[in-house]
């Protein structure tokens, strides 16, 4: 019997071929407890994984310890550069550092200045997270990141401000209805900006294609068709992600603010609002990024003829990206 029958270095702990397995995997990825790991604990985790790789582990080391060590290393250290990722831009920091921004986006009675500020801050945070967790195996010009950032901020601010102006000019809305509708404005603004960010930052994939792999993990070609599938799946994820975060809290808060307690104690509205946003964010993030496998499959018949001629496999695999 193998000494370490379940642990696989560099592989996800849970099955990625079903939604529940991907959901459990991404719960590990976004676990904010890794933000509090000390430098000593990080080094111990890295050394433990190195000793496992060299088959020099001391007696008594369990699979659970190895999985935990890998979780810590992957949460903090970039797999391509080997450098530590800044805390606010780690995937494990996305919810705790992103929740205050979500609260700001959903504040009622937004002014033009506050609308622009919160949309800018949200897209800035998203762009930094995307950049710090990018695939850095191949060098990419910083101009590509800058282009995506400017496009995302411009689209988010333009849509949010435009919708706000239209609603302010809509004379048919009562003040109460206008306030309720304004609370839903962040969703179309953020969703469209997210898609814009993905397309602008990864548009070169559409013209150059992405690598597709056979069953043994060997590259069998570069496919523009697979690139379109990858970008579509990523774009769908980026539209679904803000949906519960920016749609559920306004609906819940509209109901909660009618409660006598919040009517009497208006100072509790912001803390309750923050808790509702945190709960929605914590649920939405792992659900959205679990929709599609990180490594997706596509039929060879759907791809370019030269790829079909290069492999006997019926299905090939490609990295969708986050």
Q: Report the count of strand segments.
A: 4
SS-derived structural category: mainly alpha
Order of helices and strands: HHHHHHHHEEHHHHEHE
Strand order of the largest sheet: 1-2
Rg on CA atoms, Å: 22 Å
Q: Give the helix proportion (percent range).
A: 55-70%
Strand content: 5-15%
- Principal-axis shape equals globular
* Ends distance: 37 Å
| Main β sheet profile | 2 strands, antiparallel
The chain-level mean pLDDT equals: 83
Annotation field: number of helices = 13
Residue ranges: pLDDT <50 for 5 or more in a row? Answer: none
How does this model look, in words?
Strand 1 (210-213) and strand 2 (219-223) form a beta hairpin. The longest helix is centred in the middle third of the chain and has 28 residues, at 142-169. Helix 4 packs across helix 12 and helix 5 runs antiparallel to helix 6 (142-169). This protein is 61% helix and 6% strand. The model has no long low-confidence stretch (mean pLDDT 83). With 322 residues, it is mainly α. It has helices spanning 19-29, 39-53, 63-76, 94-105, 112-132, 142-169, 175-183, 186-208, 224-240, 242-256, 260-264, 269-289, 305-310; strands spanning 210-213, 219-223, 295-299, 315-319. Strands 1-2 form a two-stranded antiparallel ribbon. It has a two-stranded antiparallel ribbon with strand order 3-4. The protein has 13 helices and 4 strands.
